[in-house]
Amino acid sequence: MYAEAGERHNIPHIHARYGDHRATLAIATGEVLAGSLPKSQLRLVQAWVELRREQLEDDWQLLITGRAPDKISPLS
Fold first, then answer.
1. Residue 76 belongs to some domain of the structure
2. How many domains does one find in the chain?
3. Cβ-based neighbours of 14, under 8 Å, separated by 6 or more
4. Residue 21 domain-assigned (yes or no)
5. Global pTM?
6. DSSP 3-state of 9
7. Domain span at residue 48?
């Protein structure tokens, strides 16, 4: 999770990258807000968001108050 310069942060979201693909996903739903990922990678990211939603929401609060988000573990 990171803040991009000039980006509005109205909807809590994450940025996901895979190779040359980039996507922005809503934390609350896992919905793709912008960009795209290959289908199988998108499903993995959406599963991770679902499993880590509470941590992501906590990190979002840190990020919007100018603090660094905590590290969140990947799918194992």
1. no
2. 1
3. 1, 24, 25, 27, 49, 56
4. yes
5. 0.83
6. coil
7. 13-64
